[in-house]
From TrEMBL:
InterPro entries: NAD(P)-bd_dom_sf, Sc_DH/Rdtase_CS, SDR, SDR_fam. Belongs to the short-chain dehydrogenases/reductases (SDR) family. This is 3-hydroxybutyrate dehydrogenase. It comes from the Bacteria. PROSITE patterns: ADH_SHORT.
């Protein structure tokens, strides 16, 4: 039996990719899961996993979401690639607001319930780019580095209340977001998508394949099941950060 059995979980960016894999893993482990996404299809997806779907723009208020949450998985994210001097300022702000601001607001929203019960799990889906930088990804790298720091503060504050806070930092995961990036890069560079994966995306990874969303979800569930692991970042990156 998992530690999440019988608990309530909320997963953002849950209509596809990592978020959906996490929602499925938590539901399979016996949690009641709330799935949040901007995509209206999240309602149908939620019914498939026996959960509840919420359509919401996380850059606005999160007060419409349940606060009685025991496991929070901050996963929602987007990507935009451009050099800093060409990066739209409004795009930068919106990305940081989604990946860092929303994580703060959701954590603030659910912590009183976790504190009152003396148990809670905060898992923030960061990225290898929360630990390392890549050119042309200023907003994403800044947001993920901020998320790593925020998670550590939440770990220090939450420890006396039985609440852990950790990050999972995957490399390139086989998600619609990454597959679109691969297709875009193939067009820009005039090479095949397979060459984009091997020559660009996986250049710094010792394990030369994309990570499956289910592997990230397994790491999330593992962190939920461990009460002494807090304030850390679990790199699921195929050896990228070993260099």
């Amino acid at each position: 039996m998992s530690s999440v059995t019988g608990h309530t979980a909320l997963v953002t960016g849950a209509a596809s990719g990592i978020g959906l894999a996490c929602a499925r893993a938590l539901a399979d482990a016996g949690a009641k899961v709330h799935l949040v996404d901007l995509d209206p299809g999240v309602r149908d997806i939620a019914s498939e996993v026996g959960g509840v779907g919420h359509v919401l723009d996380l850059t606005s208020s999160v007060s419409a979401l349940p606060a009685e949450v025991d496991v929070l998985v901050n996963n929602a994210g987007v990507q935009h690639v451009a050099p800093i001097h060409e990066f739209p300022a409004e795009r930068f702000s919106a990305m940081v607001e989604l990946m860092l601001g929303a994580a703060f607001r959701l954590t603030r929203h659910v912590l009183p319930h976790m504190y009152s019960r003396g148990w809670g799990r905060l898992v923030h889906v960061s990225s290898v780019h929360g630990l390392r930088a890549s050119a042309f990804k200023s907003a994403y790298v800044a947001a993920k580095h901020g998320l790593e720091g925020f998670s550590k503060v939440a770990a220090l504050e939450g420890a006396p209340h039985g609440v852990t806070s950790n990050c999972v930092a995957p490399g390139y995961v086989r998600t619609p977001l990454v597959e679109k990036q691969i297709a875009d890069q193939a067009r820009v560079h005039g090479i095949s998508e397979a060459d984009v994966s091997s020559q660009i995306f996986l250049q710094r990874s010792a394990v030369k394949r994309l990570i499956e969303p289910s592997e990230v979800a397994s790491a999330v569930l593992w962190l939920c099941d461990n009460s002494f692991v807090t304030g850390t970042s679990l790199a699921v990156d195929g050896g990228w950060t070993a260099q």
